[in-house]
Protein: Protoheme IX farnesyltransferase
Organism: Bartonella apihabitans
Amino acid sequence: MPIASPADANDYIILLKPRVMSLVVFTALVGMIVAPEPINPVLGFVAILCIAVGGGASGALNMWYDADIDAIMKRTRKRPIPAGKVTGGEVLVFGLVLSALSVFTMGIFINWFSAAFLAFTIFFYVVIYTMWLKRSTPQNIVIGGAAGAFPPMIGWAAATGTISIESVILFLIIFMWTPPHFWALSLFVTTDYGEAHIPMMPNVKGERSTKNQILVYAILMALCGIAPYFIGFAGITYGILSTILGVIFIYYSYELWKTGQREQTVAKAKKLFFFSLIYLAALFAILLVESLATRLISYLGA
């Protein structure tokens, strides 16, 4: 009779990567709410739940495949598989079951277009990014970042059954945000990635090239960040605040770009990394609040 693994409920929650899932859920919710066609609140809850479960399934499958390098890196060696709390086989089954459950529930209760989009996102993150790009190219974050940028498009598709230029803009904001966010992180955990033989940009191209690219992507991201206002998708409040946030992001990226000493690089990279979290959350929160406020004013004036 097989011996049960010592994992508890918290270990399985960790497998779902709850911090990453929270970002997935929030951006998907914004995509759903700002879509032009309202969705039934109950169906909207089901859709967000499916996206959350699908995102968690992706995280679990990522940990299953990356168990070998997770055991090497300091920041990941306490995850359930390398810590011996659960076996790789159990995590594989867990991830596959959750993936199938999320996709089929989405298809049955919401629409099959959004379900297919969710399935593709899971496949992209697990197969294209985790199994292929992550260990083979310093562009892993750039291309693989698409997986993390799809959720608002899925939320939009859940409400409308399609995609549009507006949802593509939401995708581009996250897509352009991902490289400076993760490369800033990699600048102060370079040794960790090096020991695991993951070809992150600083390890392969060096700090100077990484800083150059961070600055370029920061500028592109800031331009995408204000695009919703210029295409008439967002109002003046969003336009002003997104511009301010974008300028701050570019400033922090420029400050990092100027540094030469290692200690200064680490300090500036940490500052940029933590502000990048604020930037994305604030940008989508402003878009959400402005959209809800506009609808409320329209409703009260009707």
Notes: Residues 164-302 form one domain. The chain has a mean pLDDT of 92. The chain has two domains: 1-162, 164-302. The CA atoms of residues 220 and 274 lie 19 Å apart.
